[in-house]
Amino acid sequence: MDRLPAMFVGDALGLDFLNSVATPVDSPVDWIDDGEGLLGWLEQARLVTAEALAGVRSHALPGELDKVADQARHLREWFRGFVREHKGRPLSAMDLAQLEPLNRLLERDATFSRISPSLAGKDMPAGGYIPFQLVTERKWRTPEALLLPIGEALARLVCTEDFSHVKACEGPACTLLFADHTRGHRRRWCSMAACGNRAKQATHRHRHKGDH
């Protein structure tokens, strides 16, 4: 099934994951409604390389990727509840207990470091360069490992974002969330092209009606 390109308007991958179900036009779209959808979203989010995704796809048993997509949707809705409860105020140490399911997911990770070629080379003071870089890789032992980079993105959100600036779009029917990184933190819409423009049009119609 052909899908619309996924939406990345959250200014934080953890929020973009929550936004992987939305109503971009008239009908709701769930970009991870099945296993292939999950693979497609992970590739668009650049959380997993196309090569790794192809490897997972080729080794997955029938129906296995769909089951992982189902787990991803459950993770998404659990974390949406956490974000909606805490957005608009700073997190506190007391909130850690609620994040225990996320820590349990992260504990399953199998990452390792590898020396790889550095694309540009690292400059050295003496004028030379270091041709290598240390990169973190992940062992994709089972399709369930696809949940791990998502868990990492969610963990990064709670560890790096000020939840005071995590907001829900003010569009009446919009469900999208975003981190407001604008100066003055006055962002109100998921995007000006979508909900912001609709609000402007509605205000214009209201004023025009009042003139008659």
Proportion of residues in β-strands: 15-25%
Helical content stands at 40-55%
Would you report the number of β strands?
Answer: 6
Structural class: alpha+beta
- What sort of overall outline do the alpha carbons produce when their principal axes are compared? globular
> Helical element count?
7
Rounded to an integer in angstroms, the radius of gyration calculated over CA atoms is 21 Å
Tell me about the largest β-sheet.
2 strands, antiparallel
Order of the strands making up the biggest sheet: 1-2
Mean pLDDT: 89
Low-confidence stretches: none
Secondary-structure element pattern, one letter each: HEEHHHHEEHEEH
Measured distance between first and last alpha carbons? 48 Å
Characterize the structure shown:
The protein has 212 residues and is an alpha+beta fold. Helices cover 42% and strands 16% of the residues. It contains 7 helices and 6 strands. The strands form 3 sheets. The chain has a two-stranded antiparallel ribbon. Strand 5 and strand 6 (177-179) form a beta hairpin. Helix 2 packs across helix 4 and helix 5 crosses helix 6 (147-160). The termini are far apart.
Main attributes?
42% helix; two-stranded antiparallel sheet; 212 residues
Summarize the model shown.
The chain is 42% helix and 16% strand. It has helices at residues 13-18, 35-44, 50-59, 64-86, 100-106, 147-160, 192-210, and strands at residues 21-22, 29-30, 111-123, 129-138, 166-168, 177-179.
